[in-house]
Recover the amino acids of this structure.
Protein backbone atom coordinates (compact mmCIF):
# COMPACT_ATOMS: atom_id res chain seq x y z
CA UNK A 1 0.00 0.00 0.00
CA UNK A 2 1.21 3.53 -0.81
CA UNK A 3 1.91 5.59 2.29
CA UNK A 4 -1.34 6.85 3.79
CA UNK A 5 -1.70 10.64 3.34
CA UNK A 6 -2.41 12.75 6.41
CA UNK A 7 -5.91 13.92 7.19
CA UNK A 8 -6.96 17.33 5.88
CA UNK A 9 -5.79 19.82 8.56
CA UNK A 10 -8.87 22.02 8.22
CA UNK A 11 -11.09 19.01 8.81
CA UNK A 12 -9.16 18.14 11.94
CA UNK A 13 -9.43 21.68 13.30
CA UNK A 14 -13.15 22.20 12.67
CA UNK A 15 -14.44 18.58 12.49
CA UNK A 16 -16.88 19.71 9.79
CA UNK A 17 -16.88 19.18 6.03
CA UNK A 18 -19.40 21.29 4.12
CA UNK A 19 -20.78 19.47 1.07
CA UNK A 20 -21.51 21.75 -1.87
CA UNK A 21 -23.84 19.90 -4.24
CA UNK A 22 -26.01 21.83 -6.69
CA UNK A 23 -27.52 21.62 -10.15
CA UNK A 24 -24.79 23.93 -11.43
CA UNK A 25 -21.79 25.63 -9.89
CA UNK A 26 -22.69 29.26 -10.52
CA UNK A 27 -23.62 29.97 -6.89
CA UNK A 28 -20.86 27.95 -5.25
CA UNK A 29 -18.12 30.61 -5.01
CA UNK A 30 -20.48 32.87 -3.05
CA UNK A 31 -21.54 29.95 -0.86
CA UNK A 32 -17.89 29.05 -0.24
CA UNK A 33 -17.16 32.61 0.88
CA UNK A 34 -20.12 32.59 3.24
CA UNK A 35 -19.08 29.27 4.77
CA UNK A 36 -15.50 30.44 5.23
CA UNK A 37 -16.77 33.62 6.90
CA UNK A 38 -18.62 31.39 9.34
CA UNK A 39 -15.47 29.39 10.08
CA UNK A 40 -16.06 26.26 7.99
CA UNK A 41 -12.85 25.82 6.02
CA UNK A 42 -13.14 22.27 4.62
CA UNK A 43 -15.32 22.32 1.49
CA UNK A 44 -16.32 19.41 -0.76
CA UNK A 45 -17.60 20.27 -4.23
CA UNK A 46 -19.34 17.25 -5.72
CA UNK A 47 -18.71 16.14 -9.27
CA UNK A 48 -22.46 15.71 -9.80
CA UNK A 49 -22.56 19.51 -9.98
CA UNK A 50 -22.24 20.89 -13.52
CA UNK A 51 -19.01 22.89 -13.73
CA UNK A 52 -17.70 21.45 -10.47
CA UNK A 53 -14.01 21.34 -11.37
CA UNK A 54 -13.95 24.91 -12.69
CA UNK A 55 -15.66 26.05 -9.50
CA UNK A 56 -13.18 24.08 -7.39
CA UNK A 57 -10.25 25.81 -9.06
CA UNK A 58 -11.89 29.23 -8.73
CA UNK A 59 -12.71 28.78 -5.03
CA UNK A 60 -9.18 27.59 -4.27
CA UNK A 61 -7.68 30.59 -6.04
CA UNK A 62 -9.96 33.05 -4.26
CA UNK A 63 -9.93 31.70 -0.71
CA UNK A 64 -6.30 30.62 -0.54
CA UNK A 65 -4.52 28.06 1.61
CA UNK A 66 -6.57 28.54 4.78
CA UNK A 67 -9.55 26.83 3.10
CA UNK A 68 -9.24 23.23 1.87
CA UNK A 69 -11.30 22.48 -1.23
CA UNK A 70 -11.84 18.91 -2.40
CA UNK A 71 -13.87 16.96 -4.93
CA UNK A 72 -16.76 14.73 -3.92
CA UNK A 73 -18.72 11.89 -5.53
CA UNK A 74 -15.51 10.69 -7.17
CA UNK A 75 -16.29 7.17 -8.37
CA UNK A 76 -13.69 6.38 -11.05
CA UNK A 77 -9.96 6.61 -11.42
CA UNK A 78 -10.44 9.00 -14.34
CA UNK A 79 -12.52 11.36 -12.23
CA UNK A 80 -9.88 11.20 -9.51
CA UNK A 81 -7.16 12.23 -11.97
CA UNK A 82 -9.30 15.07 -13.35
CA UNK A 83 -10.00 16.32 -9.84
CA UNK A 84 -6.33 16.24 -8.92
CA UNK A 85 -5.48 18.15 -12.10
CA UNK A 86 -8.02 20.81 -11.12
CA UNK A 87 -6.31 21.23 -7.74
CA UNK A 88 -8.50 19.15 -5.44
CA UNK A 89 -6.91 18.93 -1.99
CA UNK A 90 -8.84 15.79 -1.03
CA UNK A 91 -11.20 13.30 -2.65
CA UNK A 92 -14.49 11.97 -1.28
CA UNK A 93 -16.34 8.96 -2.67
CA UNK A 94 -19.68 7.30 -1.87
CA UNK A 95 -18.15 3.82 -2.30
CA UNK A 96 -14.87 1.99 -1.85
CA UNK A 97 -13.02 2.12 -5.17
CA UNK A 98 -9.36 1.24 -4.87
CA UNK A 99 -8.47 3.16 -8.05
CA UNK A 100 -9.82 6.38 -6.54
CA UNK A 101 -8.00 5.81 -3.24
CA UNK A 102 -4.78 4.90 -5.05
CA UNK A 103 -4.89 7.97 -7.31
CA UNK A 104 -5.35 10.20 -4.29
CA UNK A 105 -2.51 8.55 -2.40
CA UNK A 106 -0.21 8.73 -5.43
CA UNK A 107 -0.96 12.45 -5.58
CA UNK A 108 -0.19 12.81 -1.88
CA UNK A 109 -3.70 13.88 -0.87
CA UNK A 110 -6.22 12.22 1.45
CA UNK A 111 -9.19 10.21 0.25
CA UNK A 112 -12.40 9.62 2.19
CA UNK A 113 -14.25 6.68 0.58
CA UNK A 114 -17.76 5.78 1.64
CA UNK A 115 -18.57 2.60 3.56
CA UNK A 116 -21.32 1.35 5.84
CA UNK A 117 -20.52 -2.17 7.04
CA UNK A 118 -17.54 -3.26 9.15
CA UNK A 119 -16.13 -5.14 6.15
CA UNK A 120 -16.40 -2.10 3.88
CA UNK A 121 -14.87 0.18 6.52
CA UNK A 122 -11.94 -2.20 6.92
CA UNK A 123 -11.49 -2.54 3.14
CA UNK A 124 -11.46 1.26 2.73
CA UNK A 125 -8.85 1.60 5.45
CA UNK A 126 -6.66 -1.16 4.03
CA UNK A 127 -6.85 0.51 0.62
CA UNK A 128 -5.21 3.63 2.07
CA UNK A 129 -8.09 5.90 3.10
CA UNK A 130 -7.09 8.78 5.39
CA UNK A 131 -10.48 8.36 7.08
CA UNK A 132 -13.63 6.51 6.11
CA UNK A 133 -16.87 8.26 5.25
CA UNK A 134 -19.70 6.47 7.04
CA UNK A 135 -22.41 6.72 4.39
CA UNK A 136 -25.32 7.00 4.57
CA UNK A 137 -24.88 7.72 8.27
CA UNK A 138 -28.53 8.55 8.82
CA UNK A 139 -29.58 4.99 8.00
CA UNK A 140 -28.17 3.68 11.27
CA UNK A 141 -27.70 6.91 13.17
CA UNK A 142 -25.12 7.58 15.89
CA UNK A 143 -25.73 4.13 17.39
CA UNK A 144 -24.46 2.45 14.21
CA UNK A 145 -21.34 4.58 14.25
CA UNK A 146 -20.75 3.74 17.90
CA UNK A 147 -21.08 0.02 17.15
CA UNK A 148 -18.55 0.30 14.32
CA UNK A 149 -16.10 2.17 16.51
CA UNK A 150 -16.10 -0.57 19.15
CA UNK A 151 -14.22 -3.20 17.08
CA UNK A 152 -12.49 -0.64 14.79
CA UNK A 153 -11.37 2.11 17.18
CA UNK A 154 -8.31 3.13 15.17
CA UNK A 155 -10.20 3.99 11.97
CA UNK A 156 -11.45 7.60 11.90
CA UNK A 157 -15.02 7.88 10.66
CA UNK A 158 -16.67 10.91 9.05
CA UNK A 159 -20.47 10.74 9.34
CA UNK A 160 -22.16 11.84 6.10
CA UNK A 161 -25.67 11.46 4.71
CA UNK A 162 -28.75 12.42 6.68
CA UNK A 163 -26.75 14.41 9.23
CA UNK A 164 -28.35 17.71 10.18
CA UNK A 165 -26.94 20.60 12.16
CA UNK A 166 -28.88 19.46 15.22
CA UNK A 167 -27.51 15.90 14.94
CA UNK A 168 -23.84 16.81 14.52
CA UNK A 169 -23.08 16.72 18.22
CA UNK A 170 -24.74 13.29 18.59
CA UNK A 171 -22.42 11.80 15.94
CA UNK A 172 -19.34 13.42 17.44
CA UNK A 173 -20.31 12.21 20.90
CA UNK A 174 -20.65 8.71 19.40
CA UNK A 175 -17.03 8.86 18.26
CA UNK A 176 -17.10 10.41 14.79
CA UNK A 177 -13.90 12.14 13.77
CA UNK A 178 -15.99 14.69 11.87
CA UNK A 179 -19.33 15.22 10.15
CA UNK A 180 -20.17 16.14 6.57
CA UNK A 181 -23.29 18.24 6.01
CA UNK A 182 -24.79 19.46 2.75
CA UNK A 183 -28.37 20.57 2.14
CA UNK A 184 -29.31 21.07 5.83
CA UNK A 185 -26.50 23.62 5.94
CA UNK A 186 -26.89 25.27 2.54
CA UNK A 187 -30.73 25.38 2.51
CA UNK A 188 -30.86 26.56 -1.09
CA UNK A 189 -28.26 29.32 -0.82
CA UNK A 190 -26.46 27.71 -3.77
CA UNK A 191 -29.53 28.17 -5.98
CA UNK A 192 -30.39 31.70 -4.80
CA UNK A 193 -27.26 33.31 -3.31
CA UNK A 194 -28.88 36.54 -2.19
CA UNK A 195 -27.16 38.60 0.53
CA UNK A 196 -29.83 37.49 3.01
CA UNK A 197 -29.42 33.81 2.16
CA UNK A 198 -25.64 34.04 2.41
CA UNK A 199 -25.78 35.87 5.74
CA UNK A 200 -28.10 33.15 7.08
CA UNK A 201 -25.67 30.51 5.81
CA UNK A 202 -22.79 32.15 7.66
CA UNK A 203 -24.90 32.16 10.82
CA UNK A 204 -25.72 28.46 10.43
CA UNK A 205 -22.03 27.71 9.96
CA UNK A 206 -21.21 29.46 13.21
CA UNK A 207 -24.03 27.64 15.01
CA UNK A 208 -22.73 24.29 13.76
CA UNK A 209 -19.18 25.03 14.84
CA UNK A 210 -20.36 26.11 18.27
CA UNK A 211 -22.08 22.74 18.67
CA UNK A 212 -18.81 21.06 17.68
CA UNK A 213 -16.85 23.12 20.20
CA UNK A 214 -19.38 22.22 22.89
CA UNK A 215 -18.75 18.56 22.16
CA UNK A 216 -15.00 19.09 22.51
CA UNK A 217 -15.44 20.95 25.80
CA UNK A 218 -17.68 18.18 27.14
CA UNK A 219 -15.06 15.59 26.23
CA UNK A 220 -12.34 17.54 28.00
CA UNK A 221 -14.49 17.92 31.10
CA UNK A 222 -15.11 14.18 31.33
CA UNK A 223 -11.47 13.22 30.70
Amino acid sequence: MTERPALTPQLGRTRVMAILRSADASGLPAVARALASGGITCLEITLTTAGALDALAAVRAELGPDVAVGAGTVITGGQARDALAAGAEFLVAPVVDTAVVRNAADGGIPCYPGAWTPTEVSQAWQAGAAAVKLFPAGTGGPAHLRHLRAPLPDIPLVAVGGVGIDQARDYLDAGAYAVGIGSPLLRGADRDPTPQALDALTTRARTLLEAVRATARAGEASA
Notes: Residues 9-220 form a domain with the TIM Barrel fold (CATH 3.20.20.70). Residues 195-222 form the longest helix (28 residues). The first strand starts at residue 16 and ends at 20.
